[in-house]
Amino acid sequence: MAMIIEGEERIEAPIGRVWEALNDPEILKQCIPGCESLEKKSDTELEAVVTLKIGPIKAKFNGQVELKNLKPPHSYTIQGEGKGGIAGFAKGGADVTLKEDGPNLTVLTYEAKADVGGKIAQLGSRLITSTSKKLAGQFFSSFNEKVSNG
């Protein structure tokens, strides 16, 4: 079951700082909802453990995250796949683009694609889509708070 989630954040920070934060495992870990650990395996590969509750199902996902198509400081693709045991799996990616809007303002836009399977997929597309949108929104708004001048 696949879905697409799009959004935009206006971040009060120079583009270079936003780019650095997008590549900083410590910052990403603090912004990913339910993230228990995020470890850097190489410059572009990370390993994550994330616990999520989707409707009545609570699952712990062990996943691989990869950064691809890096075009500093303007865009990259973040892709991940997590296995949640009997709950199923989740995989997805987001194309993230940064655009300068003056010296101290960066516009971040994202288009994320997510796909879930297994028990979670049986919960119905409305619940999964609304949960995914909420999680993506939470991630990017936390990211905005952490990175913006303040």
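Above is the first protein from milestone M3; the second protein from the same milestone is given next.
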Amino acid sequence: MAASKKIASDAAAPPLVLATPDYWAEACKHLVKKDRVMKRLIPQFGDAALQTKGDPFITLARSIVGQQVSVASAQAVWERFVALLPRGMKPASVLKLKIDDMRAAGLSARKVDYLVDLAMHFEGGKLHVKDWAAMDDEAIIAELVAIRGIGRWTAEMFLIFYLMRPNVLPLDDPGLISGISQNYFSGDPVSRSDAREVAEAWKPWCSVATWYIWRSLDPLPVTY
């Protein structure tokens, strides 16, 4: 369930719809009560919340573009990539792009291959898109990691930003680990075990807590 609102897009493409999870207020109330860091962080960001654009292909493509680069670099490349598709980011449109144009937008050869493979999976009907809402997190991850260029991190970003699953803990995300280090361990190194221990207080709202940890590092939210 999600509350949604339309936002303007370019004239050729339909308006995007940004949606926020209906559980957000309940999750924040729980986290403020259970976790001292969340009690400090959450009020700093007012009504800001996780938002999804509601398009599975865009979410996955955006995640691929963002792999192993900074948020700022990913955004710059993404904007140039989107500019190649004035009628909208659709699998069929991506398959019609010239490789040289995609490379000129700042995409590596490997990411071009990944994006083409992703588009082929959508166009070929190889994904159970209509079933995802009823599938559990691990089943969706297993299906997505079969696509070239999509590992567990990308699949977890998809669970958070597209399906808005409430209890995802992306331990492969360097921002999460860095944020836990800064907010809970005074900057000392943090292991995955340390992160899991911290996240025990977050359950069943690990996705929400992760979003606020990201905001503690970069106040401007990223949408996929």
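Note on the second protein: Residues 109-123 form the longest helix (15 residues).
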